[in-house]
Design a protein that fits this description.
The complex is a heterodimer of chains A (271) and B (324). Chain A has 271 residues and is of the alpha/beta class. Helices cover 37% and strands 26% of the residues of chain A. Classes of the chains: A alpha/beta (271), B alpha/beta (324).
Chain lengths: 271, 324
């Protein structure tokens, strides 16, 4: 394995055309991501933070090519993947998975758990026969702390936290090197959020999976990220090791964000 | 005017049973103070607020308890009377302002209409007052924004419009249901600061409903922690944050990433919030509680005062300190 970072993004630009009027005339572009550089190392977590509209989600979607970037370079395990067509990209997709914010809208409601989690195994032909397929699904369910009894159930039968475990199980089943987590714990109750954050940490320790963790929640970032990139208006304004970024933020926008974090320390009150 | 709630119970038919989604909730919100109702989804915190305003969706209904505002019982008011109370005395703002604003009416017009609905003044006067409120809640260029439609405003500005509408009646109590949950952190900080200023200026009380203890710490003097429809702990905010008594409150605090050293394992409250159909008989937290022992599954622990600032409903607290 080379020393090159697992994911190396340089000069990434993703623009959305703005069309107006009867003939849908192109009147300009929304520069959602406008020249972004960063790396994710193997087995590490990079958090991408910013407010709504900062472009953080578009970065994540550009990397897994749910949207097509305008320019730049995305090197994954040393290979440039930006110019690749869908066929050439296919083997890379196994290595590069995504977990979404709302597990209910990202799980096919008509598939049972067995088929949901096995979907990746099926498309990449990773299971030789039905019993191996089932065994691998049971194993990955065990890893995310769901019971094999759940195999024949449908997504609606699960709570929010369990559905997020299913989303993670789906990504994990194909043994990816990188998982892009887009606000993966933001919709969960705090007690459930803690369970999922611990699970993500365990999986990283065990399988060496790297995370690109997209979130607006700075206390989560401080807890789990090795590095943080702060996005504002389509650009990364600051990127640093987590401890340094929190202790000595350089960019004024980072300072604004950090000062808005609500403390849990008791404070003086008027009576 | 103080808001005093005693033994409030709101039931929903579920299967062949009636389930108390809000179960025997009592609190006092003194004039000019802020009380927070805290809990996870399904705790009954929002339903408590809706019960106060008599807005519980059918087929649910308030079955027991009393709701007194300035000594006046609200539970048995007629429909026109309770309408007058809503807005004039108790106003409410919600998590998603866009769902409470009419998308096809200009925002200034909506606030003007709200004022006209409750007061006998001319349209010109009402407009002037609405404009003054826009300015007060910190809407930049209020004159121009007055003629905007809701979709032309950001989430933070829409919430400011909602706050201006709620304030237009100078309510005694503002019920704020997750007022900042849908907003970006920097905007959240601004809205919380605004609420704090307005509370002082208007002498309002605030009933804050939230799942976020950071938000509680910014605004609330006192906190009620709800779990599965019941109050499990009631305490002054600083006391709750520094020395929680109930295992559920402790678990909530310990599961927050902001209170641990980076990378340290977070405390996990085992399991999930049970569905109302599976609520245990005694303490409703007993199936997930790390301190559970014999009486918990059988007897409902009463809410007991452990100091002048703190009460909890937990059998295990007696085990620690016999005699109290």
């Amino acid at each position: 394995m080379s020393d090159a970072p697992l994911l190396e993004v340089t000069g990434l630009k993703t623009w959305f055309p703005v069309r107006r009027g009867l003939f849908r005339k192109l009147t300009g572009y929304v520069r959602a991501v406008d020249g972004v550089d960063f790396c994710v190392e193997r087995g590490r977590t990079l958090a991408l933070v910013g407010e709504s509209g900062s472009g953080k989600t578009t970065v994540g979607r550009s990397i897994v090519r749910l949207v097509e970037p305008e320019a730049g370079s995305i090197r994954f395990a040393g290979q440039e993947i930006l110019g690749l067509d869908e066929r050439a990209l296919f083997p890379v997709r196994r290595q590069l998975q995504m977990v979404f914010q709302d597990p209910m809208t990202s799980l096919n409601p008509r598939l049972r758990v067995l088929d949901l989690v096995a979907e990746g195994l099926d498309s990449f032909g990773l299971a030789k026969n039905r019993s191996e397929r089932r065994d691998r699904v049971v194993e990955v369910l065990r890893r995310v702390k769901l019971s094999p009894d759940h195999l024949t159930r449908f997504p609606y039968e699960f709570s929010g936290g369990q559905r997020q475990r299913l989303g993670i199980a789906r990504a994990l089943a194909v043994e990816p090197a990188l998982i892009v987590c887009d606000e993966a714990v933001s919709a969960l109750d705090v007690s459930i959020q803690a369970q999922i954050l611990n699970l993500l940490a365990d999986l990283q320790a065990e399988f060496g999976v790297a995370y690109l963790f997209i979130t607006h929640d700075l206390s989560v970032v401080r807890h789990l990220a090795h590095q943080v990139a702060v996005m504002h208006q389509g650009k990364i304004v600051e990127i640093n090791e987590t401890a340094q970024l929190f202790e000595a933020p350089q960019h004024p926008y980072t300072r604004t964000l950090l000062s808005a974090v609500l403390s849990l320390e008791p404070r003086p009150r008027s009576s | 005017m103080a808001l005093e709630v005693e033994g409030l119970t709101t039931e929903f038919p579920l299967g062949d049973r009636r389930v108390p989604i809000v179960d025997d909730v009592s609190f006092v919100l003194p004039e000019g103070r802020c009380l927070a109702l805290v809990g996870e989804s399904g705790s009954g915190k929002s339903m408590t607020a809706l019960s106060l305003l008599r807005l519980v969706p059918r087929p649910g209904r308030v079955t027991r308890g009393s709701i007194r505002l300035g000594g006046r019982e609200l539970r048995h008011l007629s429909v026109p009377e309770i309408r007058h109370v809503r807005g004039h005395k108790l106003a409410m703002i919600f998590q998603e302002p866009q769902t409470s604003l009419n998308p096809v009416v200009r925002v200034g017009e909506q606030v003007t209409e709200a004022i006209l609905l409750h007061e006998r003044i001319g349209r010109g006067e009402a407009r002037k007052r609405a404009l003054g409120l826009f300015e007060r809640v910190g809407i930049p260029e209020p004159g121009a924004r007055f003629d905007y439609y809701p979709h032309q405003l950001s989430g933070g500005l829409k919430q400011r419009v909602m706050i201006s509408m709620a304030l237009s009646m100078r309510p005694e109590v503002l019920i704020a249901d997750e007022p900042t949950t849908a907003l970006d952190v920097t905007i959240q900080a601004q809205i919380l600061a605004l609420l704090r200023d307005l509370q002082g200026e208007f002498g309002m009380s605030i009933l804050l409903i939230t799942h976020d203890l950071g938000v509680v710490n910014q605004l609330a003097d006192e906190v009620l922690v709800l779990y599965a429809g019941r109050v499990v702990e009631k305490a002054a905010t600083n006391q709750l944050l520094s020395q929680p008594l109930h295992p559920y409150t402790r678990g909530l605090l310990d599961s927050l990433p902001g209170r641990r050293r980076p990378g340290e394992r977070l405390y996990e409250i085992q399991g999930v919030v049970p569905s109302p159909l599976d609520w245990p008989r005694g303490c409703r937290f007993c199936t997930r509680c790390p301190e559970v022992f014999e009486p918990c599954a059988e007897q409902t622990p009463p809410l007991e005062a452990f100091s002048s600032e703190q009460s909890a409903a937990c059998h295990a607290r007696h085990r620690e300190r016999p005699g109290t």
